[in-house]
Amino acid sequence: MDFIGAKLAVFLGDKVLVVLRDDKPDIPFPGYWDLPGGGRENDETPAQCALRETEEEVGLKLEEIDLLWSRSYEAEGKRSWFFVTRLPADMERDIRFGDEGQRWALMDAETFCAHPKAVPNFKSRLLDYLGEKSVDLWE
Questions:
Q1: Ranges of each domain in the chain
Q2: What's the CA gap between 68 and 83, in Å, rounded?
Q3: Of 3.90.79.10, 2.30.30.30, 2.60.40.420, 1.25.40.10, which CATH number belongs to 5-132?
Q4: Do β-strands 33-34 and 15-20 pair in parallel, antiparallel, or remain unpaired?
Q5: What pTM, to 2 d.p., does this model score?
Q6: How many angstroms separate the CA atoms of 50 and 84, rounded?
Q7: Are 114 and 122 in contact (CB under 8 A)?
Q8: 31-65, pLDDT tens digit by residue?
Q9: How far apart are CA 9 and CA 50, in angstroms?
Q10: C-alpha neighbours within 13 Å on the C-beta side of residue 39
Q11: d(Cα 35, Cα 42) in Å, to the nearest integer?
């Protein structure tokens, strides 16, 4: 099945990188906290989509080998992908905010998942990952 887009939860140390969406009434979830990612372009693979969008939105140039976890999700007959990467905290210095969204922040995953203004689908997908990870990758 084709897919429509992909998201990437980027952990920098123990914090997740989040983007405050623009506050425009013509977009889904205006003014909500989101994760890097977006719609598929041309014949991209899910990983290529997530990596391209992350570079465009926050300036982090990552590779497929950096992706540690992935899962596809289907809703209303449309498939999308969710990826997770864990990077050293000092890579925060490499963030270069793009032209989508109001600002970026680093947030505890638990805070993001409980936040009333976080995009609901991505809260539940991040919880799926957190529920499955069996060891701390930084230990």
A1: 5-132
A2: 7
A3: 3.90.79.10
A4: antiparallel
A5: 0.92
A6: 10
A7: no
A8: 999 999 999 999 999 999 999 999 999 999 999 99
A9: 10
A10: 3
A11: 22
